Amino acid sequence: MPAVKSAPPEPAPRRHQTRQRARILEWLRGTDSHPTALLTHEALVRELPNLSLGTVYRNLEVLVSEGLIDEVPSAGGGVRYDGNPKPHHHFICEGCGAIDDLHLQAPAELARKLRRARGRSARRIRIDFYGLCETCELHASTAETAS
Amino acid sequence: MPAVKSAPPEPAPRRHQTRQRARILEWLRGTDSHPTALLTHEALVRELPNLSLGTVYRNLEVLVSEGLIDEVPSAGGGVRYDGNPKPHHHFICEGCGAIDDLHLQAPAELARKLRRARGRSARRIRIDFYGLCETCELHASTAETAS
DNA sequence: AATCAAATCAGGAATAATTCCTGAAAGGGG
DNA sequence: CCCCTTTCAGGAATTATTCCTGATTTGATT
Questions:
Q1: How distant is C1' of D21 from CA of A78, in Å?
Q2: Chain B CB contacts of A121 below 8 Å
Q3: Could you tell me which of B113, B31, B82, B106 has the C-alpha nearest to residue A114?
Q4: What's the pLDDT band for B74 if we cut at 50, 70, 90?
Q5: Which residues of B touch A103 (CB under 8 A)?
Q6: Mutual orientation of helices A53-65 and A19-30 as an angle, nearest 10°?
Q7: CA B8, CA B76: separation in Å to the nearest integer?
Q8: Is residue B64 very low, low, confident or very high in pLDDT (cuts 50, 70, 90)?
Q9: What is the distance, to the nearest Å, from the Cα of residue B91 to the centroid of all Cα atoms in its chain?
Q10: Are B126 and A128 within 8 A, CB to CB?
Q11: Is pLDDT of B12 > 80?
Q12: CA–CA separation, B80 vs A77, rounded Å?
C-alpha cells in the first residue's frame, strides 16, 4: 500500500468529476462565442438529453469559482461565460452585440494610474472596446445613404 | 457621406419634460453609487408616491438613449446606472461589490493596439479595475491571520 | 463487486428582473 | 381652451435566475 503520504498538499475542495460538468467546460472551451447559460444548455441538451437548465447554472457557477471559466457582464444585463480564463479583453459590437476576444496586454501605465489615483492595486484589469464590427459598420453606412 | 447638410438628420426628438423623468435624472446625478432600477425606484417613491417601477425602467432607458446617463453592466448580471455620462472608468471591489468612479484617461496606446489587432476603431473604451477596497482588504487580512 | 456517504442530478416551483399592454392624465402648440 | 402626442400608473406577461426535493451517480472503501 502507499508509503508515507504525510500531507496531501491539496486544499482544493474535493469535487466529483461529472459528465455534465466536464462537457459544459469542454464545450465552452471549444467555442469562441460568449454564450449565456441558456445558449449553453441549448447546445448541449442534444447530446445530454436530460441536462437541466438548473444544472447548467449550477455548474457554470462552480466552474467560475474554480477559476476555470470567466463570467462576463454583458450589455443589457445578461451574464455570459467565457471558456478562456486567461486575462484578455473584449471588443463589443454595439450593433449586433457580438463579443470578440482581444489578446492584447493592458499597459502597465494603467496600474500606475490606479495607484496614483486611489492608492489601490488591481488584481485584474478588464478593458472593453465598444464599436461596430465590420458587418455592422457596412450596414450602418448603407442605411445612412438610403435615408 | 455627403458634404451638404441638407436635412437635420436628428432634430432631437421632442421629449416632454416630466417631473418623474427630471427627478430620476436629478437623483442619479446627485448620488455616486451606481444604483439599479429597483434602488432608484425605492429612493424616489417616497417623494413621488405613485411612481411605478415600470416608469423608472422606461425613463432610465430614455435617458440612456439621450446620452444623459450611462448603463453599467455589473457583475452578477444586473444593470446599473451612472448619472455621469462623461467617459470614465471604474474600480470594482470584489469583496463588497462597490463601484467607484475613476476619472482617469484611457491611454491613446489602447486605441492604437486595437487598430493594429483588429483594424477597428472604438467609439468608447471602458476600463474596469477589479480589486479589494480598503475596508475589504482589512477584513481579508484579519480573517487570514485568524485562521 | 457490494456498500456507503457525500456530491450531484433532473425537474419543477419560487423568486427576481425586466418588458409589455391598457386606458387615463398631462404637456405643448396653436 | 382644444387637439394631438407623450408619458403615466398599474398590473399582467415574459425572461432570467435561484432554490428545493427526492432520486441518481461518484469515489472511496471493503
A1: 28
A2: 131
A3: B106
A4: confident
A5: 117
A6: 70
A7: 41
A8: very high
A9: 13
A10: yes
A11: no
A12: 9
The protein side of the strand D contact, defined by CB less than 7 Å from any of its atoms, consists of A 16-19, 36-38, 53-54, 57, 61, 78-79; B 14-16, 18-21, 48, 50-55, 58-59, 62, 76-77
Residue-wise pLDDT for A86-103, tens only, equals 889 999 988 888 899 999
Question: B100-147: per-residue pLDDT in tens?
Answer: 999 998 888 999 999 999 999 999 999 999 999 888 888 777 765 544
C-alpha cell at A76: 443589457
Which residue in B126, B133, B134 is closest to A130 by CB distance?
A: B126
**Of B91, B123, B129, Cβ closest to residue A131:** B123
**What is the mean predicted confidence (pLDDT) over B34-55?**
93
CA–CA gap between residue B52 and residue B57 (Å, rounded)? 9
Q: Residue A79, CA: closest nucleotide via C1'?
A: D16
Shortest distance, CA B143 to any CA of chain A (angstroms)? 17
What nine digits make up the cell of A126? 478588464
Q: What grid cell was written down for A118?
A: 486611489
Q: Which residue of B lies nearest to A137 if distances are taken between CA atoms?
A: B120
The pLDDT tens digits of the residues spanning A6-45 come to 333 334 455 677 999 999 999 999 998 899 999 999 999 9
> How many residues are listed for chain A in this entry?
147
